[in-house]
Amino acid sequence: xxxxxxxxxxxxxxxxxxxxxxxxxxxxxxxxxxxxxxxxxxxxxxxxxxxxxxxxxxxxxxxxxxxxxxxxxxxxxxxxxxxxxxxxxxxxxxxxxxxxxxxxxxxxxxxxxxxxxxxxxxxxxxxxxxxxxxxxxxxxxxxxxxxxxxxxxxxxxxxxxxxxxxxxxxxxxxxxxxxxxxxxxxxxxxxxxxxxxxxxxxxxxxxxxxxxxxxxxxxxxxxxxxxxxxxxxxxxxxxxxxxxxxxxxxxxxxxxxxxxxxxxxxxxxxxxxxxxxxxxxxxxxxxxxxxxxxxxxxxxxxxxxxxxxxxxxxxxx
Length: 317
Hints:
The protein is α/β, with parallel strands linked by helices.
């Protein structure tokens, strides 16, 4: 008996998996609205899934591991066909995906920069000596200490609203976080300084929304092909290749940025105390983004990045 081929337009529904935070739901709804406009006859449902990273809020990310911390349960739901695809912040996705899954679309990149929200409208260099500043990222911590070794840095977890409450209740002088999330949630008025990539390198894939699905789910691939942004995909491939070669993640301070205007890929590796920071760049070739990422990693390794990373890994064991 010959099986009937179902055209994408005839698919009755698509279930999109996401974490339940305000930002995650905002991002999932961006994808959902795209699908509703491009495929109005298809029912779009958003399914919220709680991940390990959402459940453990009292420990720094660097202490609880990062292999699928914010994605494992969602990816299992894709593989079990409980959902058709998932929407992630690309920086949460490990560089190695589970067998049978692939990233099928990268949304247009939001602002890549990091931002400071400080008391009294202060900027980084204006913070009083010894100020207590909060961040949940080793990458930000290392770069901050490299610029201001006198600061007292503390860990902070939770969604943006939770962090803003802690900023007040704990009496922190300020906190650092990704500007993209602040912008997407309409809270840019709270930002006191935006740090340029030349001064403060962002995380791999920062500001990019990634859609993940089963490799064999061709109709979902077709549905979302127009959502994909070419420059975001090029940046994602290069930056994730850089991270993969360095075998990095949340437990090591690594930053990278793709600049199409300057046609270069810039990366850095730093020690936990920020004292030793290695930074360099390579030219960016759109025809070989993965090679660019690997070449940049190799250049940093030749400058001593591997020794920094080995010391960090040894100290965490």
